[in-house]
Amino acid sequence: MSGDAAHLALPLSRLSTGACEATTLYSELRKPLLRYLVCLGLSSDEAQDVVQDAFLILHRHLASGGPQENIRGWLFRVAHNQARNRQNRYDRNFSAASDAEMDAVAHEATPERAVLEKEKFQQLGKAIRLLTASERECLLLRASGLRYREIGEVLGIATSTVSDTVERAIKKLAERCNV
Amino acid sequence: MCEFSRKLIAWLDRELSVEDTAEVERHLAGCSECRSGVEAYKRVSGEFGEYCDATLASNARREAPRWAPVAIAAGAVAALVALFLAMPRARVEAPVPHSSQVAIAASPAAAAAAVPAAIRPTMRRVHRRPAAANVSIRNRDTSPLQNQNSYFLPDEPMIQIAIPADEMFPPGAVPEGIHFVADLTIAADGSAERLSLRPRLASYERRTTQP
Predict the structure, then answer these.
(1) In this complex, do A23 and B200 lie within 8 Å of one another by their Cβ atoms?
(2) Burial class of residue B26, CB neighbours in 10 A (0-12, 13-18, 19+)
(3) Using CB atoms and an 8 Å cut-off, which of residues 85-114 of chain A contact chain B?
(4) What secondary structure letter does DSSP report for B88?
């Protein structure tokens, strides 16, 4: 009986809170990470590869007794660096998206809305394309719910720089979209 | 332009110190220009998030076929579970553990042998792998007395099926070391009451639960 149980799943009562946390993290952060990577310009396939790699690295990190503070920021940093290593596709979507791709995005967001709203959305897309890479990255990480300090850690810049960059980027978007 | 305009976005993001936050809030109460600025920044931030969601959705749609094998695998798992639900029903009817019940409850090895034989064709079609699906079944408790009690506690999962992630998803789709556990609750009348599938980090669990 005990021999049978050896290679099987552990009963619920013996699950550690750490393991539960890791699986919760996966379900909570998978989509925000994918969104960040796809918006950086990776294809959906590449983004999924990067997210899986990031969680694999997290798994090893935790298994080897690595620090468990701020895992969210840690995951975004790993994913960001992995995306940087795939420079060939980087920046495709936001800085060099074709008009057809932007139409598809606008249609995705506003399938039911009026033509006027669709135009406004395309205007936003154009405004995003005109941001610098660093401004886009800051806004993307901010949209993922990261604090300025965490954004600074992901991008390797000072918190005050993040604050200035976010402010500049949001004001540019607000100006160009006439809101 | 108002001198406070530089602090409005940091205020929106709750990044200011307590003193600065109070100062901005006092100022906002009396400055309509800054209030409309805050509204505009809030709106554009929301629209930026929507744009990101739409970009993700638009990309996922273009590459949708990637998900087809996963859907097929999910179907295969559903078939496995349906098969498993159908199988023990007849034999778990009596609440007292007599010999026929012990065959299920106390001999997971026998049950494990029965299930993979039945599901093997489905699993192989999904993954094109020659190896048999490594599905293992265990009952949650080991003593017959506890088994008897568990029939009257339908909230406790009675049977756990551990399924290696490799058997359900394409290679590489799930990080190494993750498997899935299906919890199955069987009601007093022998019918299956509840089923849940949970991902688990196998080796991490082992490491952290050992003394």
Answers:
(1) yes
(2) exposed
(3) 93-94, 101, 104-109
(4) T
- Tell me, what's the ipTM? 0.78
| Predicted pLDDT at B90 | 46
Question: Average pLDDT, whole number, for chain A?
Answer: 78
Q: With CA atoms as reference, report the closest residue to B6 among B30, B34, B31.
A: B34
- A12 and A23 Cβ atoms separated by less than 8 Å: no
* Structure tokens that stand for A91 in this block: 């920046």
A25-84 pLDDT per residue, tens: 888 899 999 999 988 888 888 899 999 989 988 888 888 887 878 888 999 999 999 888
By the CB < 8 Å criterion, does A25 face chain B? no
Residue among B15, B47, B54, B4 nearest A170 (CA) = B47
Flag whether residue B173 sits within 8 Å of chain A, measured between CB atoms: yes
φ/ψ of residue A11, rounded to 5: -65, 160
**b/e map of A82-98 (b: 16 or more CB within 10 Å)?**
bbeebeeebeebbbebe
| Global pTM value | 0.56
Instruction: Give B95 to chain A, closest Cα distance, Å.
Output: 22
Tokens of B126: 């999904």
Q: Which residue has the higher pLDDT, A141 or B174?
A: A141
Between A129 and B150, whose confidence is greater? A129
- Order of all β-strands in the sheet with B136-139: B136-139, B159-164, B178-186, B192-201
Tokens coding B154: 């339908």
